[in-house]
Design goal:
With 358 residues, this protein is of the alpha/beta class. It has twelve helices and 14 strands. Helix 2 crosses helix 4. The chain is globular and about 55 Å long. Bound molecules: 3-isopropylmalic acid (IPM) and magnesium ion (MG). Magnesium ion binds next to helix 9. The site of magnesium ion has 2 residues, from helix 9.
Length: 358
């Protein structure tokens, strides 16, 4: 019996997770998946209840589960806490604690939303790219780190580091993903300045000999940022480290009209995964029924595909989302003002996906 942990978190987290939970329950019944779910605490909600952004119980239960569905964490209420007590630490710790090194962030443009992008339609129409981001290494986790010294003279520092095995395992995920797609892989680095990425480039080159069918090329991260907004359709799969992947995936998300549409999967080597929307907790719109639940609903679809071996149920959700968009329903973030659009809230959007599933 598959068991799923639900982590709503903060801000719009509870609203989007409520809709995703309803969708999960529906496909669970329809496809007789036998899934059971349990709610646990993370982020600011966990800090308020226990003093810790990731209570031990949440990590233990998540490690034992088949998959974790995550909403969002963070908000102004907790912004002044010291770094190790912030809500974001909860997310970083669960990623590391579950060994979720491979973060898959697909950026797919739904034809109905082509005009919602800030880029011209011909630049983005048909866009379908996948960013493979290393998630538990690099400068996010490298030691030493800290802020030291006398007031007025303090120094802040972090360490960007990757070992060959770490680069190799994320490289394999990316090459395998490219094999299943258009067989084009762009590795993003800053090998003109940073040694850590000189090594990154070397390992990618070495791996490419095992994947003769995949065309591998390298791009400096500054150029990659530019190319993503200049001609994004040149990319199929991009692979990069933790920090560059964080930045580039936000840029890629915007190509698709709204970051409110993008799901993501974070996997370990047992294909156990944490699934989350790419967007954050959006405290400015929390509790107002304005959030777009589709990224979280699409994260359920990724979860069914990658961790629960239920491709039919995954496809059913994708189809339902497509049909809802085709019918003209839009949350505010994806509205373009075109005729035939109907603006709805988070709850009604979730309701429409449920209806489309039946
Ligand atoms: C993301 C987020 C996180 C990250 C934050 C919330 C820690 O921006 O998932 O992209 O930087 O990885
Ligand atoms: Mg980010």
């Amino acid at each position: 019996m598959p068991n799923i942990i639900l982590l709503s978190g903060d801000g719009i987290g509870p609203e989007i997770m409520a809709e995703a939970g309803r969708v999960l329950n529906r496909v669970n019944e329809q496809h007789a998946l036998g899934i059971s779910t349990e709610q646990c605490l993370i982020g600011g909600a966990a800090i308020d209840a226990t003093g810790e952004p990731l209570p031990d119980e949440t990590l233990t239960k998540s490690k034992d589960a088949d998959a974790v569905l995550f909403g969002a964490v963070g908000g102004p209420k907790w912004d002044s806490l010291p770094m190790h007590k912030r809500p974001e630490k909860g997310l970083l710790k669960i990623r590391a604690g579950m060994d979720l090194f491979a973060n898959l962030r697909p950026a797919l443009l739904y034809p109905e939303l082509a005009s919602a992008s800030t880029l011209r339609e011909e630049v983005v129409s048909g866009l379908d790219l996948l960013i493979v981001r290393e998630l538990i290494g690099g400068i996010y986790f490298g030691e030493p780190r800290g802020i030291e010294g006398e007031p007025g003279q303090r120094v802040g520092y972090n360490t960007d580091r990757y070992s060959e095995p770490e680069i190799e395992r994320i490289g394999r995920i990316a090459f395998d993903a490219a094999m299943a797609r258009d067989k084009k892989l762009c590795s993003v680095d800053k090998a003109n300045v940073l040694e850590v990425t000189v090594l990154w480039r070397e390992v990618m080159e070495r791996l490419s000999q095992e994947y003769p069918d995949v065309e591998l090329w390298h791009m400096y991260v500054d150029n990659a940022a530019m190319q993503l907004v200049r001609a994004p359709k040149q990319f199929d799969v991009m692979v990069t480290g933790n920090l560059f992947g964080d930045i580039l995936s936000d840029a890629a998300a915007m190509l698709t009209g709204s970051i409110g549409m993008l799901p993501s999967a974070s996997l370990n080597s047992q294909k156990q995964g944490l699934y989350e929307p790419c967007h954050g907790s959006a405290p400015d719109i929390a509790g107002q029924d304005l959030a777009n639940p589709l990224a979280t609903i699409l994260s359920v679809s990724m979860m069914l595909l990658h961790s629960l071996n239920a491709p039919k149920a995954a496809q059913a959700i994708e189809d339902a989302v497509k049909s809802v968009l085709a019918s003209g329903l839009r949350t505010k973030d994806i509205a373009t003002g075109a005729s035939g659009e109907q603006i709805v809230g988070c709850r009604a959007m979730g309701e429409a996906v449920l209806k489309a599933l039946t």
